[in-house]
């Protein structure tokens, strides 16, 4: 399945980046109870048609959230920078006959949850996949 291949590949890219894994407790699509901060979540938010003249494909909006607690503002920004560096314009291999044409950062916003001083940066990346 094309979309699952993308999520798996992005997950592996983030989970195998030593700069990221030295700081976060994990990368998740579902966060287990009692997970320690900071951590990253990954989800695919929107999938649309990206058929062009010579090939078929999908455009996928990925949402990457960074959650931090201690020294939260600075920590979240540092982790976001690492995520951006790992994904923006990255060459990521997909399984099967699918090819990632590009993945690009689009936007980010920081939120502070009042409960326990938890900070969150939500960032969006757009990936274009052909097959």
Topology:
Layout: H1 2-15, H2 18-21, E1 27-28, E2 39-49, E3 57-68, H3 72-87, E4 99-113, E5 118-130
Parallel strand pairs: 1-2
Antiparallel strand pairs: 2-3, 3-5, 4-5
Q: What is the count of distinct domains?
A: 1
Derived from helix and strand composition plus strand pairing, the structural class reads alpha+beta
Which CATH first-tier class would you pick? Alpha Beta
Helix amount: 25-40%
**Amino- and carboxy-terminal Cα gap:** 11 Å
Largest β sheet strand count, sense and barrel closure: 5 strands, mixed
Q: How would the global form be characterised?
A: elongated
CATH architecture: 2-Layer Sandwich
Tally of DSSP β-strands = 5
| Helix-strand topology string | HHEEEHEE
Radius of gyration: 15 Å
Summarize this structure as a short list of keywords or feature phrases.
5-stranded mixed β-sheet, single chain, 131 residues, STM4215-like, 3 helices, alpha+beta, elongated
